[in-house]
Amino acid sequence: MSSNSHGLPLHTHKPSRRTTANRIFAVVYGCATLALLSHHALSLLNSTTLTSFFITLTFLISDSILAFMFATTQSFHMRPIYRKEFPENLRRVVKESDFPALDVFISTADPHKEPPMNVVNTALSVMAYDYPIQKVSVYVSDDGGSALTLFALMEAAKFASHWLPFCRKNNIVECSPEAYFAIDRDSHLSDQVENIKVMYKRMKARVKNVTERGKVAHEYITGEEEIQAFNKWTEEFTRQDHPTVIQVLLESNKDKDITGNLMPNLIYVSREKSKTSTHHFKAGALNVLLRVSAIMTNAPIILTLDCDMHSNDPQTARRALCYILDPEVRPKLGYVQFPQLFRGINKNDIYACEHKRLFQIDPMGMNGLSGSNHLGTGCFFTRRAFFGGPSNFLPPEIPQLSPNNLVDKHIWSSEVMELAYCVAACNYENNTNWGLKIGVRYGSLVEDYFTGYRLQCEGWKSIFCHPDRAAFYGDIPINLVEVLNQNKRWAIGLLEVAFSKFSPITFGTRAMGPLMGLAYAHSGFWPIWSVPITSYAFLPQLTLLNGVTIFPKVSEPWFLLYVYLFLGAYIQDFLDFVLAGGTFYRWWNDQRMWIIRGLSSYLFGLIEFLLKYSGISTHGFNLTSKVLDEDQRKRYEQGTMEFGVPSPLFVPLTMAAIVNLVAFAWGHIEVFRGNNNNNLEGLFVQMFIAGFGVVNCIPIYEAIIFRSDGGKIPRKTSVVATFLVFLLYLAAHVTLRNSAAKSVFCQSTIL
Ligand SMILES: O=c1ccn([C@@H]2O[C@H](COP(=O)(O)OP(=O)(O)O[C@H]3O[C@H](CO)[C@@H](O)[C@H](O)[C@H]3O)[C@@H](O)[C@H]2O)c(=O)[nH]1
Ligand SMILES: [Mn+2]
Q1: 182 part of a folded domain
Q2: Are residues 468 and 592 in the same domain?
Q3: Which positions bind Mn(2+) (predicted)?
């Protein structure tokens, strides 16, 4: 509860009221889990046949993983806190002229997957921050090395001279022009708004035109400076192989807006690329920006943003200052993370793109410990945090890169420029600590998770700041294959950390204590959900089809344990979700997507990771496309699942859908036939699981059979899946033949 000499607090926090209930539930549920696991273990020892041995083993492994995941989520439940900031008190406490300078990093990587207009909107939205303007510098990293993106930013620089004063004068809060004009303002469109709207539309048309042509036509290039800039795109210039391009598009000492006010710095950076050196994807790009910005402005505070995310509140930087300027918080403060929130999600969020747990609930839980993990975008870092722990400063190789170095030269001066080019070179990092101990860390496709984690291990604390008005809004992928591929990339990246020498279980627990270690382990081991999900999606069903009972009868006490474990987990998940502002249908889709991801992204991520681990294959950063197809958008808005392409990711999913339906139907037939051994009592749990699967798979059945639009499941996928299901059934039949009409669930043990 920090107040200062003026008695005005900058921020407060209060614990969640559910903490005690959470702790009691954790203990009871934990005991129930242990009971089940010990039962499995004893059954394993007592198993009589090889088949029952393997079935029990599968459940022992699956349920152990579920138990592990349950145990790790407890860190989020032990001490969640709600924070509140008072940016309005800021001006009474600090003079604006004493605000720290702010460097904003925006990354983009491909003008065809990430439309340059998105980058423009992201940049404009932060340039319009309510912050002393000469203290703001916006750096755009273009890993696509594209003249199209540079062109778009040149246009943005010109438009900014109208847009920024317009926002300031009218107190606009939606400072991304696209978001601002998307709201229908027809009724009170003043001339001024109309003018700027026309200007924006014209700029958009020019940028679109250039992007579509794939080339910046001569008629669009006006000044000598611009000609020189585009001359760098020679014949040999390719995306993977090109020299550094740094272009200062706006300079706060020189450029003024139409009302004569200063403008923030706007700098375009496309680092050198060479086919012979690794570039470490976004992590590499951010490190180049860390160095280039150090040479040019060296602001102590850095905001990182992806080009698919824009500011929704110009007060955000001030809000972050409420923590950054608190002398009690500052010495150990590594970063202030804002949640990832999204625009354009359909009503019931069919793909669970909101990731409420990942981006809101879990960070809130970590807030009461050492602070949230880093979510990649919408995060204010202290520059110092990139150079060793709070009490263990690690100096960079040249003093000009040091976080406490004062820049006393002009951005344009040849000295600054030369050095900037030098530190953006692709082999600059050779034999340095960059990516290992300094800057954004390399070695994982989820550089965000890994970097935040390493900073926290070094002793840095973080703050999760979740104001009522969203600070940033991002875009989400709106077709299933994009969603699953994105999640697969995350899965691989997380495993890269989980199974490294920095594993949260060992290294993390030692560095940050058990609760924080487990919290990071929960995300790190995210993809192993695929093991229990896959087992429960196939095994109960295949055994049901072969008349083998594998769960306790309804009349047995163990049955109640299963009921408790299932309902307990589901109800707690539901409460977490709804209390964080979710609706029932969104929660339902969220759990459905958890199962779908388990059968696709997590499963394939796990397999690809293992292949890479054993040196068989490698994988890169597969950029999520932000380009929207109109038909797809329509179907998305109606809430229809989009399959469309014959992706291997859909195969296990389709297989599970078929197996569950067949097993569920077969189970009914068996029960009605009144077969003594296969009565409802014994098969109930299996029937329930299959039925639950069927309900979850309804959109998949629709997509296989009833749909004719471009988003249905391709014939090829359903044929392959059906064939594989058949093989699976045969294999199960051969294995289970001798156990038919038997129960594998062993009742004679501990009860
Ligand atoms: O070689 C690359 C690849 C990507 N990017 C940028 O990285 C960002 C994230 O890429 P995106 O395709 O949008 O991935 P998402 O899965 O949507 O991003 C989430 O996951 C990433 C880690 O996988 C984090 O970096 C992001 O912050 C987080 O929002 C974008 O701005 C890209 O331009 C680069 O700069 N260079
Ligand atoms: Mn993204």
Answers
A1: yes
A2: no
A3: 282, 306
Q: List residues, by chain if needed, whose CB lies under 5 Å from ion ligand 2.
A: 306, 308
Quick check: is 310 in a domain?
yes
Q: What total number of domains does the chain contain?
A: 2
Range of the domain at 420: 88-481
* Among 181-185, 280-284, 467-471, the least confident range: 181-185
Examine the domain organization and report whether 648 and 703 are in the same domain.
yes
Ligand 2 mean position, distance from CA 362 (Å): 19
Q: What is the pLDDT of residue 1?
A: 44
204 annotated binding-site participant = no
Cβ neighbors of 683 (< 8 A, separation 6 or more) are: 544, 549, 667, 670, 671
Same domain, 414 and 528: no
pLDDT over 50 at 751, yes or no: no
Amino acid 6: pLDDT: 63
- Residue 624 CA to ligand 2 centre (angstroms): 6
| Secondary element (H or E) of residue 565 | helix 557-579
Query: Do 469 and 547 fall into the same domain?
Result: no
Which residue has the CA at smallest separation from atom 16 of ligand 1? 486
C-beta of 448 in contact with ligand 1 (< 6 A): yes
Residue 321 in this model has a pLDDT that exceeds 80: yes
107 a known binding residue? yes
b/e sequence 430-449, b meaning 16+ C-beta within 10 Å: eebebbeebbbbbbbbbbbb
Task: Determine which residue's CA is closest to atom 17 belonging to ligand 1.
Answer: 624
448 as an active site residue: the answer is: yes
Give the β-pairing of 136-142 and 81-85: unpaired
What does the alpha-carbon distance between residue 55 and residue 37 come to, in Å, rounded to a whole number?
A: 14
Residues 540 and 429 grouped into a single domain: no
Question: Predicted ipTM?
Answer: 0.99
Confidence band, pLDDT 50/70/90 cuts, at residue 749: very low
163 within domain boundaries: yes
Tell whether the torsion through CA atoms of 724, 652, 609 and 505 is positive or negative. negative
319 within a domain of the structure (yes/no): yes
Active-site pick, 63, 143, 257, 313: 143
pLDDT at position 5 over 70: no
